[in-house]
Every structure is written in structure tokens, then in C-alpha cells.
Amino acid sequence: MSDYLEERKEDDIDLVEIVREKLLSIGKEQDIALFDNNEYILDAKNRRPKIQRFILNKYWTLQILNIDNVDSIDVRYCLVNDGDIDKWIDLFNKKVVPFIIEHDLPHF
Q1: What gap in Å lies between CA 105 and CA 108, rounded to an integer?
Q2: Which pTM value belongs to this model?
Q3: What is the enclosing helix (H) or strand (E) of 55?
Q4: Residue 90 and residue 103: Cα distance in Å, rounded?
Q5: Mean pLDDT over residues 90-98, rounded?
């Protein structure tokens, strides 16, 4: 539990900000408040990168599962909780972002 509560250090990568900037770069200005004000995102903002990744994965999994009648298993498999953070960012950009665009996420 102490890992979860540990605040992000100054030199830590900020995955929440990286994802936020990606959303803005793909034209999601109208939806950015949904992301910014979501309880999961608010909780993740000042956490260490591995906790941010865990929370972001939960957030995006819920967003993806909310899409009816779409096979999303390949996209959800890219939301890995372990491993290299740079690999997570790469998978997010290559697999999750196209799904976000195609299905006009986020919805909540």
C-alpha cells in the first residue's frame, strides 16, 4: 500500500500528462475535461509512474469495455501493468490511441 500512496518525484515521468497531451494532439480538446475530472485520473496525478500506469490502465479498460459489440481484447492486452514504461507508452500510442480515435473516447 505504501507504493500506492507514494507521491511522484520531480524527476519521475508523468504518464497522466503524457496521455493528456496525446489526447489534445489528436483533437480531443472538447473531451479533455472528462479525462481531467475523472476520479481515477485525479487520483493518479501525483502518483509514481507505475501507479499512474496501473490507474490509467483501469481508466482506459473501463472506457474500452463501455463500447458495445466491439472486439477490444487486443487493445486491452496492450494496457500492461508491468514492464518498461517506455514500452507502455509505445503500446498506448500504437494500439490504444487509434481505438480512442475510432470510438471517440473518452465517454466519461
Answers
A1: 8
A2: 0.95
A3: helix 49-65
A4: 20
A5: 98
